Amino acid sequence: MSQSQQTIEPWLRGIIRCPQCKGELTDALHGDGDSQVAELRCDTCRLAYPVEGGVPVLLAELARSTDS
Ligand SMILES: [Zn+2]
Which residue ranges form the domains of the chain, and what is each CATH number? Predict the structure, then answer.
């Protein structure tokens, strides 16, 4: 377990919303085993925004599509 550095500051986590639909984001992990990365998912837009070093990157062009 080495996900501590991926933790988003609670005050920040409380205010961030999807930049596209302003909806709430769901905490999630993407990947397998040791290569899991934190991300924030929007079920409405079907996008997953990356979290880098505990900082959410809320840019649609950098988001991963969760549509499959
Ligand atoms: Zn959205």
Answer: 4-65 (2.20.25.10)
